[in-house]
Amino acid sequence: MKKIKRSARLVEMTQYLLSRPHTLIPLTTFADRYGAAKSSISEDLAIIKEVFEDEGMGQLQTFAGAVGGVRFIPQIPKKQALAFAMDLCSQLEQKDRILPGGYLYMSDLLGEPALMNEAGKIFATAFSGKEIDVVMTVETKGIPLAYATGAQLNLPVVLVRRDHQVTEGSAVSINYVSGSHKSIHTMSLSRRALKEKSKVLIVDDFMKAGGTIQGMVDLLAEFNAEVAGVGVLVESGAVETEERLLHDYVSLAKLTAVDSKSKEISVSPGNYFED
Questions:
Q1: How many alpha carbons lie under 13 Å from residue 9 in its C-beta half-sphere?
Q2: Are 142 and 107 in contact (CB under 8 A)?
Q3: What local confidence, expressed as pLDDT, does residue 129 receive?
């Protein structure tokens, strides 16, 4: 039990809530933690709720009754999300990102915790109305983004392997066709990693024609699982609509052109910002 000033209590309660998104916290947790009356805790939560909503940080849901309490739902306003997307586009348009073959170097951005956390918060906002059990991605570049999204939704992350590992135990493997290169690849998922009939949010760092993500969708069918949504950080705009294998997804940025000769890169905000 802590006996601290109210100002310090507000700061600590705020941090407690921010670090436990989508978690129902009984009022007795705070009352016991600070040795305060529930009425005082309720007043504190009203202040925190107002700040969260005014600053666009998210919602603080309250639940009455014996099993009642509060739950913090992270959300980011569209205007703030667009500012993030514009900054991401600016960074992706740096000329030194062009690699041989017209590929774009993104690993440094995927390794930035602050950037990934912000992207994860946008995905958590975009899919907040969905019933989701787990976040899924395929190794390896999409892992930071998947964990950032999982953290904002307070959900576990499931990793699909490109090669089966003996340490994964019994697994389901499927072949899938790359949408861009039309080549056949293999992906696998441990039988212990995902419960049957789970509702899954698929997250990936880059999507060209959607072959890899469609492979994950097909893999989920082997578990009788349901795709709750698909989120990609960057999509390629160079693929014709009829060539794209996936059409229902949320993207934060769209790579529209890469000119290896002139070193020009064009990136615009993704479909999440389309009206």
A1: 21
A2: no
A3: 86
> Which distant-in-sequence residues (6+ apart) come within 8 Å of 253 by Cβ?
85, 88, 89, 92, 233, 234, 235, 267, 268, 269, 270
How does pLDDT run across 10-54, given as a tens digit for each residue?
999 999 999 999 999 999 999 999 999 999 999 999 999 999 999
Nearest to 44 by CA among 20, 58, 62, 57: 62
What local confidence, expressed as pLDDT, does residue 179 receive? 61
* Per-residue H/E/C for 112-135: CHHHHHHHHHHHHHHCCCCCCCEE
Helix, strand or coil for residue 141? coil
Looking at this protein, which amino acid is placed at residue 10?
Answer: L
pLDDT of residue 180: 61
Give me the pLDDT at residue 237, please.
83
So what's the pLDDT on residue 108?
96
Dist. CA 47–CA 24, nearest whole Å: 18
| Residue 15 structure tokens | 């941090």
Kindly report, residue by residue over 149-179, the tens digit of the pLDDT. 999 999 999 999 988 778 889 999 999 987 6
Q: Which residues are CB-neighbours of 132 under 8 A, at least 6 positions away?
A: 153, 155, 199, 200, 201, 228, 229
H or E element: which one contains 258? Answer: strand 250-259
CA dihedral 45→49→51→52, nearest 10 degrees, is 130
